[in-house]
Fold this protein.
Amino acid sequence: MSVNNPLSLGEMLDAAAARRADTPAIVLKDIRISYAELAARADAFARGLLALGLGPGDHVVIWMPNSVEWNVANFAIAKIGAVTVTCNSRYKGVELEYVLRQSDAKALVMMDRLETAGIDYREILRSVVPDVLWQQDRRIVSAKFPELRHVIVFGAEHDPGCLGADAVVRRGAKVAPGELAKIRVAPEAPAAMLYTSGTTGAPKGCLLSHGNFWYKAREYLALHEWGPDDRCLVPVPYFHIFGALGCITANALAGSTQVVMEVFDPEEALRLIERERVTIFSGVPTMFITILGHPGFRDYNLRSLRTGTIGAAPVPVEMMRKILDREHGLGMDATVVYGLTEATGGTHFTRLGDPIEQRVSTVGRVTPELVDRIVDPTTGRECAIGTEGEVCVKGPSLMLGYYKQPE
């Protein structure tokens, strides 16, 4: 794997399936999916998407909680050269409408419901795209969403205008595998669009390329000495860059295992760390606080934990002490990250072995692939040491741009 030849997301999965065919790619509840199985399911779904007329450059929204199906859909979309548009799994009608409209989505991939959170996705969809209730040909024609053609549903129930995911796979069985193999996805091609609010205005769609994901995943693996035998707890949502990059892509590139949570629960996290011998645990500070404060914390064997990263908020010094403490805490050599969606995640990390003071008072140093400057936002001039300013970074993980907002 040359630094000058980045892999596409689909190629990362195929490489992992070739090297680690029987290794669990995903563990979720009592489900275990090997890399060979995940690659086969992604290929079958990808051929189904081709049968629907979807292809390179088309935008496909994924509106689901963390799941095996999220992975299948994401890699299938990547394999046909289309673009995954991530959508918060807790979004209601107004937010869903914005994403479908702003992204010019050709298709929506969703679940019928999320039982653990009491969410009926079909009910929300009907309020946004009522056309699904009466259209019988499984193809959407909507004046409200002129680009939208298909709604694909994983689950037992769906409306007349929608297609079940199984039906999509059956359609794909008529597409020769060679048709999928013909598609070549360039590193600079867009792979995903993730929404970020920034500081002003409506959410903006950050377009990230396959190369962006590959470069940044390589950094994650190197910074955490992450290898194929690691097992990574996934408590963060896939629709966020933390999950899309730090969980799905990094594990695929390493050929390691995702131990997936639909939604975060501290007791379930403790149980999974012990049962699955989790070695990597990354999340936001509140996750670590609730785990360390759980009344049953000392009842679990957590000695498999090795490393992980903490981001999105400052890390209190006492919490970091407990995270590092092997006798009475988690015993993890955890890094602290600062980043942004526009740079495909972390731009600055503390390093393994850094003093505790450095981990809690800084966000570390810029990653090897990037160059950073602190500038005065009004003049653009570099700030003197000790002066507040705006962080600017450049390098191969920077986004392609904001969709329909080039300025």
About this structure: The longest helix spans residues 35-51. The first strand starts at residue 24 and ends at 28. The chain has 13 helices and 21 strands.
